Amino acid sequence: MGQPQQSDGAGSERPPLRIGMVGYSFMGAAHSQGWRTAGRVFDLPLSPVLAAICGRDAGAVRAAADRHGWATAETDWRALIARDDIDLVDICTPGDSHAEIALAALAAGKHVLCEKPLANTVEEAAAMAAAAQEAYERGQLAMVGFNYRRVPATALARSMVAEGRLGRLRHVRVTYLQDWLVDPQFPLTWRLRKELAGSGALGDLGAHIVDLAQYLTGEQLTGVSALMETFVRERPLPGGAVKGLSAVSAEGATGQVTVDDAAVFTGRFPSGALASFEATRYATGRKNALRIELNGELGSIAFDLERLNELAYHDGTEPGAHAGFRRILVTEPDHPYLDAWWPPGHGLGYEHTFVHQARDLVHAIAEGRRPEPSFADGLQVQRVLAAVEESAEKNAVYTPIAV
Fold first, then answer.
1. In terms of CB atoms within 10 Å, which of 15, 31, 74, 382 comes out highest?
2. pLDDT at 251 over 70
3. Rounded to the nearest 5°, which phi and psi values hold at 46?
4. Given the DSSP bridges, would you call strands 299-304 and 310-315 parallel, antiparallel or unpaired?
């Protein structure tokens, strides 16, 4: 089946870190890029080896292995975990299988990287966090994949906030807007079914912006108030066999959408800062529009994922006559992650966040240091998502009274 691919040109000089990945679609491709590239760019203490990739469809997973450089393919994740030549299990599957795979991998003595959101329920996430803590005491590490922490501009923003450049925070404003569900004829994929995805825009997009807001502020949300909506409640069933559906769909058949299409919520941080969040897959014309702005007593920072090599910064201590937002082009070698990449002005892209994620996890494993974000961090985000859902379910709507 071929030899495991080393991620750098000097694999024999460094101990290997043999990766087994479960899932081969969108996130599988992104994670493959990260593992394949990290050792070719960064000087890593361990050499990632793309040992095995796993998926249910033998032909499709073999094709993915060939395309992305994995040495072998499996069709049963239990068989992958049982292999002696796997050190780390990377979970890129729908949320309904995260807990089962992660718990089994940790019990088998493997390190684990798990895509976000950590699980479909707080109970599953709590079990995963507890198992990860026990595994950490045995020398195993577990990390959740919030890749937007690894954009150089957001990492720079975090350091500026931590340095006190904004002073006491007042506002945190976050939106994550997509439009891929605007067409009511878009089929009922797994992302639209609660038993597989856990939630809709809230878990898919909201998990990212909750984590990013908490990462940048260095604080955890203490309370939320929310509204959620499902705009299209039935969609065409996709053709062919689909996981969880009892039969192949007939032409014209539809199924119920059981997740949210959009979530809007407010929150409060311990410092007193107020936060607002919006996550939707119905913002016509918006493809992957994540934007966050922090306003403090001394200044403001804003980041837009569609301009991910830039950070907008306003220094509120400057004289008003020439003060204003200025663009920081985050491509300098002393900016986070960028000392290993291109000359200043040569920007990076979305895929590089997964390279940086792999780099950070490899260093944490080599140093025996708890990685960030940990499963405990993933559990905390899961608790926020659950609180949003509970608030939305109980939120009373009041009719304004005419004066």
1. 382
2. no
3. -130, 155
4. antiparallel
Q: What is the pLDDT of residue 88?
A: 99
List the beta strands (DSSP E) in 63-168. Answer: 72-74, 88-91, 111-115, 142-145
Per-residue tokens: 377: 């961090």
Contact between 179 and 287 under an 8 Å Cβ cutoff? The reply is yes
> Do 42 and 341 meet the contact criterion of CB atoms below 8 Å apart?
no
pLDDT digits (tens, 9 = 90+) for 358-381: 999 999 999 999 999 999 999 999
Cis? peptide before 48, omega within 30° of 0: no
The whole-number pLDDT of residue 13 equals 83
Which H or E run includes 18? strand 16-22
Instruction: Output b/e per residue, 155-174; b: 16+ Cβ within 10 A.
Output: bbbbebbeeebbeebeebbb
Q: What's the average model confidence in pLDDT over 322-348?
A: 97
* Contact criterion met (CB below 8 Å) for 256 and 233: yes
- Give the residue from 30, 20, 80, 304 showing the smallest Cα distance to 173: 304
Residue type, 8: D
How far does Cα 319 stand from its chain's mean position? 39
Comparing CA positions, the residue from 58, 71, 59, 57 lying closest to residue 21 is 71
- Encode pLDDT of 178-223 as tens digits: 999 999 999 999 999 999 999 999 999 999 999 999 999 999 999 9
Q: Which two tokens stand for residue 192?
A: 């639209």
Report the chain's mean pLDDT, rounded to a whole number. 93
pLDDT band at 398 (very low <50, low <70, confident <90, very high): low
7 vs 272: CA distance, rounded Å: 45
Encode burial over 244-266: b for 16+ CB neighbours within 10 A, e otherwise.
Answer: ebeeebeeeeebebbbbbbbbbe
